[in-house]
Amino acid sequence: MSRDQILEVDRLTMRFGGIVAVQDLSFAAERNKITALIGPNGAGKTTVFNCITGFYKPSGGAIRLSHDDGKVIALERLNDFRIAKQAKVARTFQNIRLFPGMTALENLMVAQHNALMRASGFTLLGLIGAPVYRGAEKRAIDLATDWLKRVNLLDRADDAAGNFAYGDQRRLEIARAMCTEPALLCLDEPAAGLNARESAALSELLLSIRNELGTSILLIEHDMSVVMEISDHIVVMDHGVKISEGSPREVRDDPKVIAAYLGTDEEEAVAVMESGS
Amino acid sequence: MKTPSINTAKTASGIPALLKTACVNALIALVLFSLMVGVRTEAGSDGQLTYWTRFGDVASLVAAVFGGSIVLELLKQWIGPTGAEKLVPPAVQSGMSFLGRYLAPALLIFTLLVPVIFYDQRYILDLAILVLTYVMLGWGLNVVVGLAGLLDLGYVAFYAVGAYSYALLATNFGWSFWICLPLAGVLAAFWGVLLGFPVLRLRGDYLAIVTLAFGEIIRLVIINWQDLTGGPNGVSSIPRPSFFGIPLDNSDNGLAARLGIEYSPTHRIVFLFYLILALALLTNWVTIRLRRLPIGRAWEALREDEVACRALGINTTTTKLTAFATGAMFGGFAGAFFATRQGFISPESFTFQESALVLAIVVLGGMGSQLGVALSALAMIGGFELFRSLESYRMLVFGMAMVLIMIWRPRGLIGHRAPTVYLTKAHAISSDLVKEGHG
Predict the structure, then answer these.
(1) Class of the A5-98+180-276 domain?
(2) What is the ipTM score, two decimals?
(3) Which of A113-127, B131-145, B226-240 comes out lowest in average pLDDT?
(4) Cβ atoms within 10 A of the Cβ of B170, count?
(5) Distance from CA of B423 to the nearest CA of A (A)
(6) Where are the beta strands (DSSP E) in B280-385?
(7) Which of B308, B421, B433 lies at the smallest CB-CB distance from A101?
(8) Taking CB atoms and an 8 Å cut-off, how many pairs form between chains A and B?
(9) How far is the CA of A82 from the CAs of B204, B311, B424, in angstroms?
(10) For the domain B90-408, what is the CATH code?
């Protein structure tokens, strides 16, 4: 595994009973880059995500994550919460999973749970109101405020997350994932249900996360305008296997990809492309 | 006046539908009552079965159901669709929130003054101690059910563990109340963790059933482990609490003698009152503190969405266990107090009915709301005493009151949630956004 790769998925297989959702999938995500995982519905993208973030135990294969300091962690061996805690992988969900009865600020505070737990002396120091904890809490609020500013929700910090509009909830969920200060951010269809302007704002946000903070991003997305604009590398899946990989331009012109999206076979797709050009 | 038109379209009312509903209800009543009321059986003089029929009574009951359901349907159509907004006008809502701000301090001051005001009324003091015990139990269970969203039907088990811990330690080793109190809490918390481990993977109904079983197991162990617990005979002559080592009796070194005042048995009652008040306030203070700490936020986040918690790196196992342990610890404190107040405990005090009562207090008060739980404990325990003159109808009145409260405020007396941290201003979060938890 080379130094500039943050994530390496090696011959990943996931079976559910007799159904093979992902078969022998291998790809790598580079550090400080945006890697997109695309494919038609049911291609197995979310299954790959759930394997990476520990919600599923893979049936076979290895998932390796390397940190800046060269430490390599085998993700397939860790429990879900340890992947977020120790391997520093954060994720969002296809169907938004905020804490609806808590305010936006509280959502971002919960994301900093592990750091705050240490600062609160596992509750004991916090209970007696030790200054160590107060300082840590203040810094946590500052970080949360900073992220609310970035996703443009600062004026709604004290409103319940469940009351937010759909697009705002999407952005808040990204902010919450970023508050865990991850090395790798996994986004499951962040642009789903957003209008054109919101999608453009999302692209900008993701680019700023990559450029300013150097966080690597892995995203599943159907909105091709977003994918093509921001991705450095694209992996295309269909029926659980990888069918193509490369830069946005390469993938766009790959007849296999077009065939998969159009639901036809390859020759037909080539014919369509040639007649079009 | 647009509601009636919508209403009639929706319910498709009219005489045929009305009669149909009434007939169905009457039929159900007929099936139920024909055996329950229609046939009366009794053991005869020689032990043989004798029975006689009362079809006239059945007929009148079925007729009453038939007529009653027609009246109910008509009433429904007349009132229109029931909605929460309609039942509680916004003016009343805002008035209540204003009241809520000053209610808690006012209640606290009144509670502090209860022994002064009612010094001569032993009955009221005893009742106040009982109410405060349930307030404390409610606040303890509130951590598990209200904050962490884990439905616990066996809370009485920890109450029992606390009571027996104090009773056995005090009678066997002669340890003082102030040493046994923390020990009772620690032991109850230990059992809370022990219960927590096997049920971590269970959710909702399954969790409720296992906790219910746990409560029964503890009670059955207490009944059957006769050598240790005395079985159904219980533990008697449990030492009364002392005022930090000074006994509250009429002996020469008792508190009254030392202060040079005349001894009165009320001194002990007043002392017990302030003791349980202090314990309850400690529970309240700790819970309020914990809510604002990462652990408390993790409890609430767990109630809102467990999957998201795991994705954020929160260890849901330890989070659930700490909730169980904290709730159990307060239950244990309350149990120790119960033992020292009664002077005698037996398994009969720790039946499922106690668990159900405490859970009802939490649910009626509004899950997660400290003030709500205190108010509902007052209403449930105090109200129950209030209706004593109604004798056997007391349960009926009580049940009706509960149904009414659940219709009027389905999320409890105080259903909204106060944020634990804010940037500019803390807005109360409406109860329909707050999740109840799923186990």
Answers:
(1) alpha beta
(2) 0.88
(3) A113-127
(4) 24
(5) 7
(6) none
(7) B433
(8) 139
(9) 25, 9, 34
(10) 1.10.3470
